[in-house]
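Page 47, continued from p. 46.
Same chain as before, 166 aa.
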Amino acid sequence: MKKLLLTIAIGTLPAIMMLEMSVAQGTSAKESATKPGSSFHLNLPASNDKAAKNFKRKFKNVTNPTWETVSDGTIATFNYDGVITKVFYNNNGNWQHTISYYGESKLPGDVRSQVKSQYFDYNISQVEELTLPTQIIYLVHIDGSSDRKVLRISGGELQEMVVTRN
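Result:
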């Protein structure tokens, strides 16, 4: 199970980063079609109303997510309080997992302390929080003077996943 989750986390990281770069560079056609005050379901494919209901129940304060249909389901993306979040639903509209992207200031204190106690000379540059049905995994990107690392924290256990030299 641990290897499967690790594979999922590492496997989705490059795709997620590419998607984030493309979103940052411009707005999609779906975003352009959505105007403030428009219907909550404007971008949602009609085939997945259950996903919209599940989304609205869990994320009450989010009024205008961007919806994307993928081969195995639907993804809702939104930015709320400085956190970019992607919520993944299967083709039946059931929640699968959530990925949130944020900086050090939003990282839970216990996780931040765990990182800083071992990597006190490093700066936390980005966090990906992967919420699965049974656990939460944090991928914490840290920058040092000579290298960059991606740390995986879950269940109180910290592992170095990726190390690159500057």
